[in-house]
Design a protein that fits this description.
Length: about 625
């Protein structure tokens, strides 16, 4: 018997479940699906830190599981399956991704907290060419609250049952673990092994796409009762709420679903007087964000990633003694780093992930260690005054330092070589990340000389020189910056193309050049100073000279909110601000630069190239 007609659509296809999970198999066969089981050999070891969200990580793992099985079957018996289903489960607690416990202690830690269970499912529709496979994907999220009465003894009694160890989140809700869970919001089967309801809906969308006339009907949101509210909602206008965490569909659809869902929820509340609003998971994750940042910064400050670089896994007590810290504190910090995807935790101990080796060890080529320390030692402290910055509309160095600050770069901090070097290390790390993109954003081959105004360690100058072998680049910066820049100059073929010149770009004449570069400089300064600097650059330019401006343009569409955070950052730290594309365009034109072209770079930066016209 097939209750759900879409399951029948798969009956004559070769369906493969790429999973070893017995629960997943049971749920799907109970639903009448016929399939073969070929557990995936894909190692669940993707770098968590390289995904913007936990969902992204789980989805990529699910897709890779299905791909590995489809490819292997094709290679082995030359008969490609029609459909391969891959799934992955993660559990998130306050933004941290947890999977299956690696040991009993880990299980204990997982058990004591409220969790979100996210299942990502990838349905791979195969053809003989892997590249031509179509993949439909969705994920389903269920929120669980572990009973607040769950005692330490209760947890410790449960763990030896063996149930937690092969289960994401550390419990089997369908068996003994059910006793630990107080409430479930969302699809129960999703926690147990597979989101059957959402799967059927997804198949429905694939096999019965809506007719155009259906699309013109007002949206109707069918109800899927959460397990804690098994009620008939059919008397509610609009038919009840869409599952809160469905993530497929366009933004507009989501907005509609959200609005309709809210109206329904209100109606429902009015009717029963008892229904709880959705659990504010995202909100709580945002709240916890500062704790995660501080954990990352602290691990950098303690040089945890240096001690683990290129080493065999080490246990918490070893690391604790190296970083001169308590074992219990170190262990907690290491666990959070592992959950953030910065460390890997196995039975042998902790080791760096690739992200940590690449960016967090202090001696790696693309190290952001200096930038982390700058954030820990300076920016973090400034942000504690955010409320004042918002009220007063200005930076907060005076509060942090307890004195009036006239010029941020000249007299804000003690300009000891150490402080200066730390600042330069921070700038160097950030500049190296983006220098290649900046250097290649436009064709600059018509210029034979460039001046990188405020070019600090010469990281961008080096990329410009590498990209344009006939270009001579002058890095113009304050005398003490130029003095310390030698620490950052690797010997190499570009060295002969790069020169350093000391001076203050507000007071001293600029070195002459055909191309001027202002990379993340203007955003530090007030409008008055920006005019002053741009007029100096304009005066130094002959007609046809170029100005390469690199900044974060406000109002540009971006995937992440980084641009807006950057804007807040400027308020707290500098006397400047981020500006919009229109504002920069006006500024450039006012100072005689026209033909403005804009290129978006990866991350939050944008590059603009303008040409000086005859006055
Ligand atoms: O309450 C419960 N919570 C979780 C489970 C089981 O946990 C695992 C989740 O892991 P994953 O999705 O990665 O699947 P695997 O078992 O590793 O098999 P794959 O071969 O597909 O990677 C899953 O088995 C759930 O059933 C549970 O049983 N109860």
């Amino acid at each position: 018997m097939v209750l759900c007609p879409v399951i029948g659509k798969l009956l004559h296809k070769r369906v493969v479940l790429a999973s070893a999970s017995p629960r997943r198999q049971e749920i799907l066969s109970n639903a009448g699906l016929r399939f073969e089981v070929v557990p995936s050999r894909f190692k669940e070891k993707l770098d968590k830190a390289s995904f913007a969200t936990p969902y992204g990580y789980a989805m990529e793992t699910a897709k890779q599981k299905a791909l590995e099985v489809a490819t292997r079957m094709h290679q082995k018996d030359l008969r490609t399956p029609d459909v391969v289903i891959g799934a992955d489960t993660i559990v998130t607690v306050g933004g941290l991704i947890l999977e299956k416990p690696v040991d009993k202690q880990d299980a204990y830690r997982m058990l004591s907290r409220a969790q979100r269970c996210v299942k990502a499912v990838a349905i791979r529709h195969c053809s003989s060419q892997a590249a031509a496979h179509q993949v439909s994907e969705f994920y389903e999220e269920t929120t669980l609250n572990v009973s607040p009465e769950l005692s330490e003894e209760g947890c410790l009694e449960y763990i030896p049952s063996g149930e937690p160890m092969d289960k994401a989140g550390g419990y089997g809700i369908q068996a003994l673990g059910g006793m630990l869970v107080e409430s479930v919001h969302g699809d129960f089967l999703n926690v147990v092994g597979f989101p059957l309801n959402h799967f059927c809906k997804q198949l429905g969308e694939l096999y019965y796409p809506p007719r155009p006339e259906d699309l013109r009907q007002p949206v109707r949101h069918d109800s899927i009762p959460a397990v804690d509210t098994f009620e008939d909602l059919s008397d509610v206008e609009g038919g009840g709420s869409e599952p809160a965490q469905r993530e497929t569909g366009s933004r507009d659809e989501k907005a509609e679903v959200g609005a309709a869902g809210q109206a329904t929820a209100e109606a429902e509340c009015h009717r029963t007087g008892a229904t709880l609003p959705p659990f504010p998971t995202r909100l709580l994750e945002l709240l916890d964000g500062f704790k995660l940042s501080k954990a990352l910064l602290t691990a950098c400050k303690l040089k945890v990633f240096d001690w683990l670089k290129d080493e065999a896994p080490q246990r918490a007590p070893d690391i604790a003694s190296k970083v001169d810290a308590s074992v219990c504190g170190t262990e907690k910090l290491l666990d959070v780093c592992a959950a953030m995807g910065l460390l890997e935790k196995t039975e042998q101990g902790y080791s760096n992930t690739e992200t940590a080796n690449l960016y967090l060890a202090s001696d790696s080529e693309y190290s952001l260690h200096g930038f982390m320390l700058q954030n820990n030692d300076v920016i973090w402290n400034l942000f504690t005054y955010l409320e004042f910055a918002i009220r007063e509309g200005r930076n907060q160095h005076h509060r942090l330092l307890g004195k009036k600050v006239e010029d941020l770069f000249q007299d804000a901090y003690d300009r000891s070589p150490d402080t200066q070097l730390r600042f330069m290390q921070a700038m160097h790390g950030v500049a190296k990340l983006t220098a290649r993109q900046v250097a290649t954003a436009f064709d600059l081959s018509r210029f034979s000389s460039a001046c990188d105004v405020g070019g600090c360690t010469g990281a961008l100058a080096r990329e410009l020189a590498r990209e344009y072998p006939r270009l001579q680049v002058t890095v113009f910066d304050l005398p003490d910056v130029v003095e310390l820049a030698v620490h950052f100059q690797p010997a190499g073929p570009q060295a002969a193309q790069i020169h350093f010149a000391a001076g203050d770009f507000f007071r001293d004449p600029l070195p002459s050049a055909e191309l001027y570069v202002l990379c993340r400089i203007l955003h530090d300064w007030s409008d008055d100073k920006v005019h002053k600097l741009l007029s100096k650059v304009a005066e130094s330019c002959k007609p046809g000279a170029g100005l390469l401006l690199v900044e974060t343009l406000l109002d540009e569409k971006r995937e992440v909110q980084g641009g807006l955070i950057q804007s807040l950052n400027m308020l707290v730290q500098t006397e400047g601000r981020e500006r919009s594309r229109g504002e920069y365009q006006c500024l450039l034109e006012l100072h005689g630069f026209h033909q403005v072209q804009v290129v978006h770079l990866e991350g939050v930066l944008d590059a603009m190239l303008a040409t000086r016209v005859a006055p």
